[in-house]
Amino acid sequence: TPTLAAAANRTGRYFGVAVAANKLTDPAYAGILDREFDVVTPENEMKLDATEPRQGEFSFANADRIVDHALARGKEVRGHTLLWHSGLPGWLQNLTGAALRQAMLDHVTGVASHYRGKIHSWDVVNEAFVDGTSGRRRDSSFQRTGDDWIEAAFRTARAADPGAKLCYNDYDIENWAHAKTQAVHRMVRDFRSRGVPIDCVGIQAHFAGVNPLPADFRTTLSNFAALGVDVQLTELDVEGSGAAQADDYRRVVQDCYSVPRCTGITVWGVRDTDSWRASGTPLLFDGRGEKKPAYYAVLFALLAG
Ligand code: G3I
Q1: What is the DSSP letter of 78?
Q2: How far does Cα 86 stand from its chain's mean position?
């Protein structure tokens, strides 16, 4: 039987997974990873606290293990993430103003240069918009350096790795009716109109009771694609179990496939026991590595596409 990646490749798409470096030596984990997925995203190893624990001292060993594992097996890598308000190391929290702006851009240059030529797509900026109905930017130390911090980051990333696609990535932007979705859409439209280098929008797609799969998801995907960017589902998981969960997964794949520029799907972990949702069962493989109904729903939807 075909694998998820092979099935997705039939329409020129990829099927990816978030990976933790310290699990690569688990044979059950690595076996599923190597067999089923053709793109990997380091779950935490490329974040700022991991890659620049002290200012100007970069630390790439764990991320390199994932990148080397993937590239040696002909897989591609999504870089996640150059800039995020969360998980900032102490040295950076102590900076403000021009010093912080420079440190921020130096971080982008340092990490993107180290991986130049090896990254398919970078999540340059993650989660910069606030939740709720205001449609505003999230308050963060980066945001306090000026509204132009996001475009400065994208220009710097482009200079450091001209071959990588550059994405803006966020959650709760699945529902087109939401103010946050439309605010991100406005930013991307503005970037495209002014020549700020952005190639893709990453829609995390963490679906749960508080964020159910919306009926208008494919409208959101096609409205972003209409701006001239690719759309990627970057952190897919669906709370639940059994047939209901499988049905949601099927609909997600069908929504992506309804939009030619929805170019790939990444699930946020291999087995349920690998998920950041400690108590849930949101993924495609159970804790023993067995395929769940959701796995078959995804596979058949990919094959039907
Ligand atoms: O590995 C350390 C361990 O050494 C330490 O003793 C322990 C004590 O806190 O922490 C361990 O690190 C944890 C790490 O996951 C690995 O398990 C961190 O505390 C914990 O904060 C971290 O959580 C990650 C979270 O992002 C925050 O960075 C999750 O694994 C990861 O799945 C989650 O991913 C995010 C995306 O990056 C952005 N979108 C939302 C998504 C889900 O929250």
Answers
A1: E
A2: 15
* Segment 215-271, tens digit of pLDDT: 999 999 999 999 999 999 999 999 999 999 999 999 999 999 999 999 999 999 999
Provide the total of helices (H) and of strands (E) in the chain, helices listed first.
11, 9
Give catalytic residues, as residue numbers: 127, 235
Beta bridge partners of 266: 16
DSSP string, 151-220: HHHHHHHHHH-TTSEEEEEESS---TTSHHHHHHHHHHHHHHHHT----EEEE--EEBTTBPPPTTHHHH
pTM score, whole prediction: 0.98
Pocket of ligand 1 (CB under 6 A): 43-44, 87, 126, 171, 204, 235, 276
- Pick left, alpha or beta for residue 47 (phi over 0 → left; psi -120 to 50 → alpha; otherwise beta): beta
> Hey, which of 19, 22, 43, 82 would you mutate to test ligand 1's pocket, going by the most ligand atoms within 8 Å of its Cβ?
43
Strands 121-126 and 76-84, bridge-based pairing: parallel
Task: List the one residue out of 223, 174, 225 whose CA is nearest residue 203.
Answer: 174
pLDDT digits (tens, 9 = 90+) for 1-41: 899 999 999 999 999 999 999 999 999 999 999 999 999 99
Distance 44 CA to ligand 1 centre (A): 6
